[in-house]
Amino acid sequence: MALNKISRQLTQDETLPAAQAMLIGSGVAYEDLNKPFIGIGSTGFEGNPCNMHLADFAKIQKKSVYDTNKMVGLVFNTIGVSDGITNGNDGMRYSLPSREIIADSIETAAGAHFYDGILFTAGCDKNMPAAIMAMARLNRPSIMIYGGTINGGHYKGESLNIVSAFEAYGKKVNGKIGEAEYKEIIKNSCPGPGACGGMYTANTMASAIEAMGMSLPYSSSSPARSEEKKKECQDIGKYIYNLLEKDIKPSDIITSKSLRNAMVVVTVLGGSTNAVLHLLAIARTMGLPLTLADFQKISDTTPLLADMKPSGKYLMEDLFKIGGVPAIIKFLLKEGLIDGSCLTVTGQTIEENLKSLKGLPEGQDLLRPLSDPIKPQGHIQILFGNIAKLGAVAKITGHEGEKFEGKAICFDSEADLNQGISDGKVKAGHVVVVRYVGPKGGPGMPEMLKPTSAIIGAGLGDKVALITDGRFSGGSHGFVVGHVTPEAMEGGEIALIEDGDTIKIDAVNNTIDILVDGAVIDFRRSNWKKPPYRVTSGYLWKYIKNVANASEGCITDL
User: Which one of 225, 440, 462, 548 is at 20 to 30 Å from 100 when CA atoms are compared?
Assistant: First the structure.
């Protein structure tokens, strides 16, 4: 079998001399035109710790590909959006939609230029699922490389991370810290390159993708500045060549079983609710069945074991020190919680990858034993009720309780909510409703990290609940319910809630309801008028017209 079966359609066709001339003009030697072409992509861009170093990694990978003397490596880039920079402002409207742009652009670059294989380095929340979605569409030998987690910051003996900066604002507003300390926390929260350090969305998705088999062992837990991360890039050439030789493609790796492995790892580690959106999108792109009910089945049978931020105390770099995600997977395999027969990008199965790897060390307390879980069931709970007829996703770690009943206080935008928190309108016992921030209403389903951080900083984290048709950062914690579907902009019942209504959230029986008579809801619906969209042109307008709802993964190519 020819290893250049895709690129040879371009490089070996005598009727395409101009294409070949342009390749030579770009630096490919004439004698290399018969070698496999590997597209080496990244979301490298300046101005964001998660992505600032990725272009350098791509250069190392290109050298690794060329050093095999059997392949040609060609570097390309796509966009990225920083969640940390855009949270709490209008830039966040572009965050989730950027997943579709990244996936489309990877597919476009690799498809248009006939690459035989794909290496892609991603460093932020949406970038990784976007890369996997593109790889699934192309179905050519592919490996995702994670840009790595950031190292923790420090100030006055306290460990800091990006959420520390968000929560510091709530503390300052409420007089718990002064201006000088506030500035020092900002200065010290992000000490260099790498993605946000807790079990937030970036580290969650990196872990899920490694468990899925689409990245090398340790890729998700090796810090950005570690020698191990550099070595991963230096060794990548032999791994992509092995995939070419064996013709192992994403469709051989991403299966219902490997998706289940990913969900189990997300659950055990206490990962971000954004994993629900992204795994749904990956499954749909791959043509595999996956629904909200499948996530609930995993949560019903899988405990929360990892004591990791945002609700715990450890960062990803701490997990790396005790063996990383491979040590976690080895533990789960031993306990029978994952399927070790699933194929991975090493060309071997999960079980084969783990044979010579060390397990968790004695004395560690980051991962609890099954006999002493943080929570016997998973933290991701799928709720249904008259507020969320198509589902909602709750993040319940156990620290905030499992049931909440209170009076609604409603805000029709995140900005209004943030102002309401600053003005002291949000009180203990409230169920805070923030709506018209869904996929179409936001648009772009922005994350609510700024308000949840302000609530935590104000000391209300265990005293209020927050429900939204938007979504939450992996850094959010507290009693939070997102992805309420149908969204308000589509006439979902969340649009019909009024201040003072009693809302009952039950994460034991998985219900979320407004305790108002059905006739009253019907009356309110008859008087509801759809507000105008917040944008009417440009990419976000295209997104509004094409995006599926949150329970379908917010993909745009249904």
Answer: 225
